[in-house]
Every structure is written in C-alpha cells, then in structure tokens.
Write a structure and sequence with these properties.
This protein folds into two domains: 64 residues, Orthogonal Bundle (Arc Repressor Mutant, subunit A), CATH 1.10.10.10; 157 residues, Chorismate lyase. 30% of the residues lie in helices and 34% in strands. The protein has eight helices and eleven strands. A hairpin with an 8-residue loop joins strand 5 and strand 6.
C-alpha cells in the first residue's frame, strides 16, 4: 500500500537529517515552505513535522519553527489508525519474526487472551515484530490462529508480514471486524531486555479478528516498550 503523502515528506526530511545534510541545531523549512515545495496542504505538512517530532529528530515551538534536535531517531513508532487499511499498512512495513510455533489447548494466560472455551485447540506463533534495518524490536508479539488454519500455518515463513489476508484467502472468508483493546502493563525484566528498554512499563495491544458470522479466526497480542510506541486514532463525526 502506497504511503501517505505526509509520510513521504517525513521520510525525505528524516533522510536529510540522518545523512548530515541538515545539522543538529539547524532550522527546518516552515509549514508554509513545505506546502509550497511539495504542493501539499498545511495539514499534510504539519503531519510530516509531527512524525519527525515523535521520532525525536526535531523540536517545535510556537512561532519559532522546527529545529533539528538529534541526528538519529529514538526508534519511537507511531501508528495512526482510522481504518483496517492502516493496520494492514503497519504490518506491511514491519516483519513478524516467528521464533516459536506450537499447537495449544486454551488454558491459563492463553485462555484469558482468547476468551474461548477451555481446551479449544489453537495454533500459537510467538516472536518479535521489527522494522527493516532496525535491530530493536517494535514489539514482542504472539499470534493465535484458529485450528482450521493448520495447513496455512505450515506455509507461513519465519519472517512474515501481514497474516489476516492469508487467513481470508485460506478459508475463503472476509475479516468483517477487528476488535482492539489497549492496556498499560508492567514489563518483567526478561520482556524489558528483549525490547531493549530500561522502562518497567509497556503498552499491550490485543486485536481480535472475526469473520461475518462473528467466528474468531485470529488474535494478535503485542507488547510495546513505554515511550517507544504511540497509538493514534482519528475519529470523524457523521
């Protein structure tokens, strides 16, 4: 899926900063200048600068413009979501590195996540999700697949992108709804170490994928380090 225009602009500016073409302490073009250069709206220019600010590359002050604050990103990951397509794009831009595969009968913590009947069989894939070229994981992730997807699981490579379109194709169904829950949670030392974080807190995102009959086909359970993941939602009034 083609990136949004503001993401393209943010990437271009980021590359100028990280390459040293623009130095720490230098000013970036104003919103008005960006609008003129890239032929975009004020909103698009503002969004591009916001992405740089959340990555820790620039600081912004009212009437003072944007100043380069660092030559490298802090690896913060921002996920703006207004539709399922945004989730697809997020997963397309990262890779799910599968470290463990197993067949389970739901119980204990798995049962709490799945919310199914005790003993129901599921496929469980565990690992990390990463952005290409960045060693620090975006998150620790566990994906549960309905037992009807056992043939699909064997074809999923160790480094996978988006899972739910494969589910749709395998079963000939459409994911009709994605239900999501976000919680602030503590990180244990092992989780913090895996995430390369000194924080003892994280953000847990659980997504549940249902077909048109409300059958639960997939669940993803992601754990992010505090300060390295921002979740945005844009709500439109009818």
């Amino acid at each position: 899926m083609k990136p949004h225009r503001y993401e393209q602009i943010a990437k271009a500016l980021s590359e100028r900063i990280t390459s040293g073409a623009v130095s720490v302490g230098d000013s970036l073009p104003t919103e008005a200048a960006l609008c003129k250069k890239y032929r975009v709206s004020r909103y698009t220019a503002r969004e591009a600068l916001r992405q740089l600010r959340e990555a820790g590359l620039i600081t912004r002050r009212p009437r003072a413009g944007s100043t380069v604050a660092a030559a490298t990103s802090t690896s913060a990951f921002s996920l703006p979501v207004s539709s399922a397509a945004d989730l697809f794009r997020y997963a397309s831009e990262t890779r799910f590195i599968i470290q463990e595969r197993e067949r389970i009968k739901a119980s204990g913590e798995d049962l709490a996540v799945l919310g199914c009947r005790r003993g129901q069989e599921w496929i469980k894939l565990s690992g990390v999700r990463k952005k290409p070229g960045i060693a620090t994981p975006v998150c620790l992730i566990t994906v549960y697949l309905h037992s009807a997807l056992s043939a699909l699981e064997k074809r999923i490579p160790r480094s996978a992108g988006v899972i739910y379109p494969l589910v749709e194709k395998e079963l000939g169904v459409r994911i009709a709804s994605i239900r999501q829950r976000i919680d602030a949670v503590p990180l244990d030392p092992a989780q913090a170490h895996q995430l390369g974080s000194e924080s003892t807190f994280g953000l847990r995102v659980v997504r549940r994928y249902h077909d048109a009959t409300d059958r639960l086909l997939e669940v993803s359970d992601s754990l992010h380090a505090a300060g390295r993941f921002a979740y945005e939602m844009r709500l439109r009034r009818d």
